[in-house]
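User: Please predict the structure of the protein below. I'd like the answer in structure-token form so I can feed it into my own downstream comparison script.

Assistant: Understood. Taking the following sequence of 243 residues as input:
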Amino acid sequence: MQYNHFLHKDRPVDDVPASVKIFLLLALMLQLLWHSLQEPVVAKAEDLAPPLSTRTYVMSSLGEPIAVSKFLNLWLQAFDNQPGASISFHQLNYPRLTQWLDTILELDPEGHYPMLVAARVYGSIQDPVKQRIMTEYIFYKFNEDPNKYWRWLAHAIITAKHEIKDNDLALKYAHALAEKATGKNVPYWAKDMKIIVLEDMGEVEAAKILVGALIDSGEISDPYELNFLTNKIATLEEKMLKK
């Protein structure tokens, strides 16, 4: 027991050779000098690099594409807030951003999160040029699968009309929504957004003709939609009388 106690007893500092003390002191001084000569670190936001191929992400995730898509969702949304640096969405490379959104959708085709952030996060900044990039991206994806992505195009119509203030762009999207989103899951208010856009543009006569054509076609069986269109006809006629 005494032998073990002796082994574990700390040696006094005086027992350390002078040469070792000098070496440690010099090492400390050199380390302090090295740090003092370094340039101060300036936080810089890295440029958004292009995404890797979808195949690369699938292989790196050991065949779990949905898991890696969720990780990339979080990583992309946090990209504007990097360690030591914070950048606004205005500074992001939006064409490059759409490449990332596309890659994430390819990894998880059933997911809607990339479309959500395109419409409500990146598409909501006060920058008409970049908002237009996002709405055109949504329009592009809508054309791939109208009955799946109709709600995001409806959002793009509102953005185009009220934020970008481009009625022609809003009408282009609304026309596509009415013509291509024909699934039973698409509500009548989305299909009839073209009427609202025409009315707001002052094209009351055109809107009235469109409503009348929809009613006369006999294709509308939903009583709520028929009631909406009938009331809209009355509203449009009232506006025409006032003019």
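That's the full token string. The first strand starts at residue 81 and ends at 82.
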